[in-house]
Amino acid sequence: MNNKKIFIILIFIFFISKNIYCQDNAKVYVIKKLEFQEINRWYAAYIKKAIKKASDEGASLIILELDTPGGLLSSALSIKNKNDYIDKLIVLNSASKTFNLASLLNSHVIIPNEEIRKIYKKFVSKVNRTEFNLLGLIATESAYKYGSDWLDGLLKTIKRNYEYIRCEFLNKVPEIIISPLEGTYLPFFDLRNMVSKDRVKEFIQDDCKIAIDFGEWFGKNFKGFIRVNIATDFKYIEYFVDKTIKQLKNKSYK
Predict the structure, then answer these.
(1) Burial class (CB in 10 A: 0-12, 13-18, 19+), 162
(2) Packed helices 43-56 and 73-80: angle between N→C axes, nearest 10 degrees
(3) Nearest 5 degrees, angle CA 240-CA 245-CA 248?
(4) How many whole angstroms separate alpha carbon 185 and alpha carbon 75?
(5) pTM metric for this prediction
(6) What is the helix (H) or strand (E) element at residue 188, kind and residue range?
(7) Are 204 and 226 in contact (CB under 8 A)?
(8) How far apart are the first and last CA of the chain?
(9) Rounded to whole angstroms, what are the CA distances from 66 to 9, 37, 70, 83, 90?
């Protein structure tokens, strides 16, 4: 498999132990991806700068949330190899999004620091966890071993679908703003220039008969946005584009 690709990395510390979490003087820093920020090789610089700032200010715990089915392995390694803060991180990795294995419940926990690893093991031993899913283990291993051709095809499909939507909307309904696409197959569409915030459901669900994620599900500031899954057959993308454009031309939603 192409070692230039990393399928999904979520670096996240949920809870290590009361020894760290409950200290009166503990400093916990959460570094999040900026809204609509692209995940690419330059994103590593943003992460390193943020972690350095947290380290310089004496962080007891650094939480870095990076949830994306894409990105470059070189970017991740350029962060991982910095020993001055690696001992403050826990890495959770899953193939779920990229290979559509969500229901198979398989992921990995990587803890470089031995002391934190002991604390983590002690904590999770008290948590009621389900048994490992054998089918999930086999599916994940198979995906990483033999899934490169399938993944390459998927990435080409996503790129084609996105470019088609972008070009059609730019030419016919330029008022709709589309978020950049890199490292995901769920772009956001800002409809507010053409659809009132309170009429998004009427437009996209009731009239267009299209299932989407509503922007407000991700935060109150995103009311008027929709999120669309474009990792699908091109015929559905054509339907989405054709239906939304025709509906906006035939009816006002302002």
Answers:
(1) buried
(2) 20
(3) 125
(4) 20
(5) 0.66
(6) strand 188-190
(7) yes
(8) 49
(9) 6, 11, 10, 19, 12
Give the pLDDT confidence score for residue 205 in this predicted structure: 94
Looking at 43-111, which runs of residues are DSSP E strands?
A: 61-65, 91-93, 108-110
Nearest to 76 by CA among 96, 60, 92, 61: 92
Nearest Cα residue to 103 out of 112, 94, 114, 93: 94
Cα torsion for 30, 36, 38, 43, to the nearest 10°?
-30
Cβ of 130: how many Cβ atoms within 10 Å? 6
Which value, in Å, is the radius of gyration of the alpha carbons in the chain?
A: 21
- List pLDDT tens digits, range 109-121: 878 788 888 888 8
Tell me the three-class secondary structure of 97-127, residue by residue.
HHHCCHHHCCCEEECCCHHHHHHHHHHHCCC
